Amino acid sequence: MNTKTPLYPRFAKLSKDHAGVLRDFVGGFPPYSDYSFASLYSWNSDGKTALSFLHGNLVIKMKDYVEDKVIYTFLGENRVEDVADLLLRETDSLKLVPEVVACRFKSLRRFRVQEDESNHDYILNLAGLASYSGSLYKDKRYGNKRGRKLYKRIVFEKSALDDSLSKSINALLNVWAKVKEEHRSDYEDLGLADLRAAINRALELAGLEFVGAMRLVIDGRFAGFMVYENLGQGYVAGHYINGDTLHFPYVYEILYNEIGRHFSALGFTFLNIEQDLGVPYLKKSKTKWGPDHFLKKYLLTRS
User: What confidence tier does 183 reach under pLDDT thresholds 50, 70, 90?
Assistant: First the structure.
């Protein structure tokens, strides 16, 4: 066990030093976005996300994505009933419990397991995005074709996680917010400040070989970006994927097509675009990409 991650009930605040031990541990399980290092690090806005090990299982204490409260979750296969019993003394429920863990509790009457659809990870097929073939991608194929006829030069390239990228992203987010503001009834809470802070924290991870960024440049102008993480097992996480729809019609059709082409060529199979958090516009936007499957998560409580 890594000495930087203590045994429960002691916790260590998440730092860059945990990247190795975290990736080594979660690599043995399906690549749930909530347990990926870049996601944990970038959304740790209050600096209180903390890790511990209990009976050989990884325990995470973190701020809820939506509500202003602390939640607990865990990943592992050892003495899971004992782990749940101990953690449920700290909280009324365990959230973001991966299906590989939750399935161990479904036959136990003293625990209640509820599927949490708002936190399921959407998994897209990269080959499908690369080709846009078939009825599933009919609208995307049309948008991609139309978009490519509008522009003279489209470049999708790797970008350094540096100040230049940060400035480009922040400018694009201002445009993104303007578009969303004009359709506020559809988008409800913009969450721009949280998103901006999370992306800027992700850019602090320059130097980690499994985290990177891609940028979309159309006719010489910054049109979109992706901050990604290699999750292993053929999966890449698209932690942050945004495009400038104000100045570039069909930018998302082009951006996702380029993502599919690029990462398929590198040998990846799936793109994890994370959960919708129960937010209607996120659910709508993620569903329209035709998920191949979901990495499901559950809520665990006492009966």
Answer: low
